[in-house]
Amino acid sequence: MSTDTHFAPGGPEQIVYCHDEPSGLRAIIAIHSTALGPSLGGTRFYPYASEAEALADVLNLARGMAYKNALAGLDLGGGKAVIIGDPAKDKSEALLRAYGRFVQSLHGRYLTACDVGTYVADMDTVARECAYVTGRSPENGGAGDSSILTAFGVYQAMRACAQERWGAPVLTGRRVGIAGVGKVGRHLIGHLTEERAEIVVTDVNAAALDWVRAHHPDVRVVESTEQLLALDLDVYAPCALGGALDDAVVESLSASVVCGAANNQLAHPGLDKILAERGVLYAPDYLVNAGGVIQVGDEAAHLHDGGFSFERAKGRAARIFDTTLEILRRSKADGVPPAATADRLAEERMRDVSRLRGLLLPG
């Protein structure tokens, strides 16, 4: 990706490369927008094949966070960080604390949190060097695991999709295929089990599938996403990494609803239109998975007074049902895909509020 791309209209405000040789830290922080306030987004720890791949991912994720926070009604901009490496092998106290010092050097322009490969305990370690950390443990004044409300929000969006598609916000008896049963997927299984949906899951991690077999013996487990997609599904829920909806998947998809927790599900622009043309109801990913950021947003608003309230955050995450329904119905009325409708609403809010705020400076 050329440098010119970063200065194009709609590009990020800031890209920060972080390198600490003694600890082995190699990270990139991308601040897409501070139009609504400090940029908030998680830290992904992942073994990228190259620096270019890591950069492309962090830029996409940061942009998605800006839209997610705007659509969720938060006074927060969008940012993201990626740490290049295998968290099972490369993660250490020294590395996380070095990373925390880089986040601290931005003086609040970026607030970090958990993401793929990072956990509450990691955020507690980062916070030993940094005052701008959310997703910390309750014993350290934080909100704890944000995947709980992420899954709750996905479930609310799925109910809204059922309302729009089948006339009632009910998933009882519907076959839901979940690709990815990590932190979020596990909690989503719980919600769907309570509603007596028929659940089929897969994951590239054999240990994750073993967990499902042990805790939810009634849930069907298949060994690959290909096997999952070959089934006759009502709802497909991508809950792993991005790019789950590529041309081949979109062409062969049996599900009439796509609603999952993964970020950046569309492999390239235009696939949302193809989904709509095929009659598939696609709930925009950054709308669907906003429950977690609503939680850490509440924590961020009370970083220094310990006033986080899980019930308050859950009540706000429940509104994802109403927002999803509004976007689906507006999309139908305007004749444009739901993703385009969601983008418009997020962009309008960022544009209108940014006129009042201007650029957020450090300090």
TrEMBL record:
GO biological processes: amino acid metabolic process
Domain called Glutamate/phenylalanine/leucine/valine/L-tryptophan dehydrogenase C-terminal: residue spans: 144-358
Molecular functions per Gene Ontology: nucleotide binding; oxidoreductase activity, acting on the CH-NH2 group of donors, NAD or NADP as acceptor
Binding site for NAD(+): 180-185
Active-site residue numbers: 80
Keyword terms of this UniProt record: NAD, Nucleotide-binding, Oxidoreductase
UniProt-listed SUPFAM superfamilies: Aminoacid dehydrogenase-like, N-terminal domain (SSF53223), NAD(P)-binding Rossmann-fold domains (SSF51735)
InterPro entries: Aminoacid_DH-like_N_sf, Glu/Leu/Phe/Val/Trp_DH, Glu/Leu/Phe/Val/Trp_DH_C, Glu/Leu/Phe/Val/Trp_DH_dimer, Glu/Leu/Phe/Val_DH_AS, Glu/Phe/Leu/Val/Trp_DH_bac/arc, NAD(P)-bd_dom_sf
Transmembrane residue ranges: none
Entry's family note: Belongs to the Glu/Leu/Phe/Val dehydrogenases family.
PANTHER family in UniProt: LEUCINE DEHYDROGENASE, VALINE DEHYDROGENASE
Protein name, per record: Glu/Leu/Phe/Val dehydrogenase
